[in-house]
Amino acid sequence: MSSIQLSAYQIAQKVRAGLLSPLExxxxxxxxxxxxxxxxxxxxxxxSDPAEESKVHAFxxxxxxxxxxxxxxxxxxxxxxxxxxxxxxxxxxIKDIFCVQGTTTTAASRILYNFRPPYTATTVERLAQAxxxxxxxxxxxxxxxxxxxxxxAFQPHPNNPWNTERVTGGSxxxxxxxxxxREVPLSxxxxxxxxxxxxxxxxxxxxxxxxxxxxSRYGLIAFGSSLDCPGPLARDVRDAALMLQVLAGADPKDxxxxxxxxxxxxxALEEGVRGMRIGISPDYDHITYPxxxxxxxxxxxxxxxxxxSVRAVAEVLAQLGAEIVENVPMPNARHGIPAYFVIxxxxxxxxxxxxxxxxxxxxxxxxxxxxxxxxxxxxxxxxGLQPKLRILMGMxxxxxxxxxxxxxxxxxxxxxIRSDFExxxxxxxxxxxxALLTPTTPTTxxxxxxxMGDSVLMQYSDQMTxxxxxxxxxxxxxxxxxxxxxxxxxxxxxxxxxxxxxxxRAAYAYEQATRDAEWRAVQPQALRGSEVKA
Amino acid sequence: xxxxxITPELFAKLVTLAALELTPEESEYxxxxxxxxxxxxxxxxxxxxxxxxxxxxxxxxxxxxxxxxDEWLPFPDSAAILALAPESNGEYFRVxxxxxxxxxxx
Lengths: 534, 106
Hints:
Low-confidence stretches of chain A: none
Largest sheet of chain B: 2 strands, antiparallel
CATH class of the domain at 8-46 in chain B: Mainly Alpha
CATH topology of the domain at 8-46 in chain B: Histone, subunit A
Low-confidence stretches of chain B: none
Helix content of chain A: 25-40%
Oligomer: heterodimer
Mean pLDDT of chain B: 88
Distance between the termini of chain A: 9 Å
Number of strands of chain A: 13
Largest interface: A-B, 85 and 61 residues
Shape of chain A: globular
CATH architecture of the domain at 8-46 in chain B: Orthogonal Bundle
Strand order of the largest sheet of chain B: 1-2
CATH topology of the domain at 3-262 in chain A: Amidase signature (AS) enzymes
């Protein structure tokens, strides 16, 4: 049996017990990558082979040599009788937005096409110290700016393993696809407005956005510094908890990383949901969408299976002893995207000013008359359309004459979004929730090319997720079925600050109670024809 | 209230401030999308704030480490940093010599 059929937890158990060689695990997963991934993302795609259309294209770079060295180190630690770590021998892919020494770190942008960072992100260091094998860097929307992974400068972009004519979601699309296609059991992603949870939902995997500060941002190329949050993507809840165990904790190199104690997430899973209060909100059964000419907002229905799935999950949890609390008001959820359009753009524009072609990365070749012309030419050629759009929007809404109307207002609206959650989770309040259950996305995975270019519609793909980023709270998306087209449906649990253990418990209870459900036996399309069947 | 609108003239000013250069096609696309986004954020101006609502720079109060002493900590391998530059010289990043028409420095 190939180890691609095992969870990360099972692989680590077997490797730690000496029942499975880390090198064998690595080779199994490299074979799977060779079978399903196709050509890696590149600035100059070399093929027009139609067969590539049905490949996953999760990776920009496969770091087989690095992973082999790490597998050797795990083997040597075992031989010396040392603890090889919680993730001993587990292949992990890394969204190509994290600096990893020994790899190129592109952010899926031409402007960093040759950037070989001289240091490694804390999260990746922790994975490696725990015995994980860093198998490669996954594709994403350029600088994480998108919700489909199509805007990468490195094409072909990732395809959804469930139906390769559909997008993976984004921006951690390559990460989600690599997990769904069994190229890895775990991937490290980032979530700024939903970039872990939305692709996790589209690709039928588990995606956890931890509390802001729970995981270090050191070595992460920043998008929105007050929103960015590294976290795990996994095929089951236990694996997500295991990976969080390794990632979580204070980091002296990130002043916003939290010093709050890290609980035992794996032990917490077994505690069940009896007595847990889980809320459902009428403010999450639709979206509020603007007319892009007049700005008039209108209520629009979401795909009906999203709401029926939330109900079905609630029913299972109720049978397990949870109390379902109906009609929890979240009146400011609808303001999440407008506030995000402002706050994230201001922070993105600020973070993108450092890319100028002088210290690292791409430099324009055409002769310049002065330094500012060199900057302009470099940024014109190095950035794609989405970074340019974010720079321009961020500069406009933070300009002195507009700041009060937009940026300062958005920061206050953010406080109101946070207050919705504080009221819902208040232990002395009317609702006293342990978790809030919502759809993860308004629809299942949309078709490639269907939304790309429409920056407003693309952003509204995150309406269900973004409030968690504004509030800083944790949230986990889990698979909850398939729609009539066979595409995965995700539901999400929001939780209280630093209580990832509670939302993981709820997610695990549902997962265990439905482990024999028919839909769980259906495999993604990309696995059905592959040589190494799961 | 109608949304703010970015005219071609204002857009050109923004592009300069952003240290960008755009093709006509890029300008057309980006200005259209910017105006759509401004329409989408018009809602913000119509939200009535409850009294005393303060701005949040982060969702939750930062529970981070106390700031460390402001002491210089040298990166252990500065040569590796300089090696990333398109052009460097000793301990310095270099840019083209614009006094000589921008030719590469020798």
